[in-house]
Design brief:
The protein has a single domain, classed as Aldolase class I (TIM Barrel), CATH 3.20.20.70. It is globular, with a radius of gyration of 17 Å. The model has no long low-confidence stretch (mean pLDDT 95). The chain has 11 helices and 8 strands. The chain is of the alpha/beta class and 274 residues long. Pfam families: OMPdecase.
Length: 274
């Protein structure tokens, strides 16, 4: 049987470093690479990233930038996910899906089931209630995939909800982390992770999570690679810094892209040894 996502992620980051590289084909980046803002430009951008990022542990395509091109964009995303996985890279689809009932079940089938869009893991929003994610969590578990649940994001608007205090005195963000921790308990490296922004000064307690922590915002958004140690009391080897623009700006040359990724991978390698 295929190992669970948590185990596969731990093995991949131990061997290839704790860095998640983003594929964010923003129109400005397409232009900077000399590519048109079309599905053909999207495909060329993605193919270049696949070539450059093979050999890294995790790659995170930002779904919205593919979805903007409609069915042609989704076709490019399907090919990109397949090519990355064929290269031995774990794929995290940054889809941030969240809904209720049968609609959530349909999202689960798309991103964590047998769909061509299904990746090794997917991001999800719990802000219709953590329990609303149950269809996705169940589908991911059945298919040995992972889910990264938004907990404490770095956008200023998020604080009004995420730092609000629940009836028991915990912040809403902490209740999300604790709900994920309960699912991971007793499973070894857990497959339910959380998302915590790298630029936050006040983060939830992550010490009992038992799963991975995706930390976006490293590099261009202001998060410093050397300042991540001990984030929220997270266990050694569980932090997964995510970087996109800081590396993508080095394109379109494949060797330059790879070198930029390697520099950041080396800068966060200490996280595996803490």
């Amino acid at each position: 049987m295929t190992a669970g996502f948590g185990t596969r992620l731990a093995e991949a980051t131990a061997a290839r470093g704790p860095l998640c590289l983003g594929i964010d084909p923003h129109p400005e980046l397409l232009a900077a690479w000399g590519l048109p803002a079309t599905s053909d430009g999207l495909a060329a951008f993605s193919d270049t990233c696949v070539s450059a990022f093979a050999g890294f542990a995790v790659v995170k395509p930002q779904v919205a930038f593919f979805e903007a091109y409609g069915s042609a964009g989704f076709a490019v995303l399907e090919r990109t996910i397949a090519a990355l996985r064929q290269a031995g890279v774990l794929v995290l689809a940054d889809a941030k899906r969240g809904d209720i009932g049968s609609t959530m079940a349909a999202y689960a089938a798309a991103w964590a089931g047998d769909s061509p869009l299904a990746a090794d893991a997917v991001t999800a929003s719990p802000y219709l209630g953590f329990g609303s994610l149950q269809p996705l969590l169940d589908t991911a578990e059945a298919n040995r995939r992972g889910v990264f649940v938004l907990a404490a994001t770095s956008n200023p608007e998020g604080a009004a909800v995420q730092r609000a205090t629940a009836a028991d005195g915990r912040t809403v963000a902490q209740t999300i982390v604790d709900a994920a921790a309960a699912l991971n308990r007793g499973t070894g490296p857990g497959s339910v992770g959380v998302v915590v922004g790298a630029t936050l000064s006040d983060v939830p307690d992550l010490s009992a999570l038992g799963g991975p922590v995706l930390v976006p915002g490293v590099g261009a958004q202001g998060g410093r690679p050397e300042a991540l140690a001990g984030l929220g009391g997270a266990a050694a080897g569980t932090l997964l810094p995510a970087v996109s623009r800081e590396v993508l700006r080095a394109g379109p040359d494949v060797a330059a892209l790879r070198a930029a990724g390697e520099r950041l991978r080396d800068a966060v390698a200490y996280l595996n040894a803490e």
